[in-house]
Amino acid sequence: MQFDNSSIYQSRIFKTTTLCPTYRTMLRIFTLAAAVVSLFLLAGCNTVSISTNQALGVPTYPPNLNPAAIPILTKPPTRSHLRLGDIKAEPSSDGVSAAQITQSLQKAAAKLGADAVVIVYDRNEILGAMVSGPWWGRSVQTYTGRVIVGVAIKYQ
To answer: Could you tell me the pTM of the whole model?
Structure first.
């Protein structure tokens, strides 16, 4: 007895279905979107939020074209300098590297035209709070995060 393979492929289980071109396009888009979302979830969002305050009464300087050359100092320099403003950095998580924070501070200082940044504050502090529960038994949960404050300076 000879076995016939054609009958298996013609059965309902093994029948190949042809998809409409619009369904194929939608399936490809959905697959691509799922891959992008997975990538973002696995990589995480390690960013540094930067805010700057320019000092009043200080002349404005053109941006520094080489941010990587701006040193980050932990003590004020002995050279005569002018305070251009404050730079506040808030990393989004503990996973943010020191190199990312340094680079963000340097970019912000470059926009102010600074020659250096002096770190004056680097601590964890309460950034916000959430109140939950009924009125008779509320609870408050605080959120802490790292905050770095630097002073952008221009040498005279």
So the answer is: 0.67
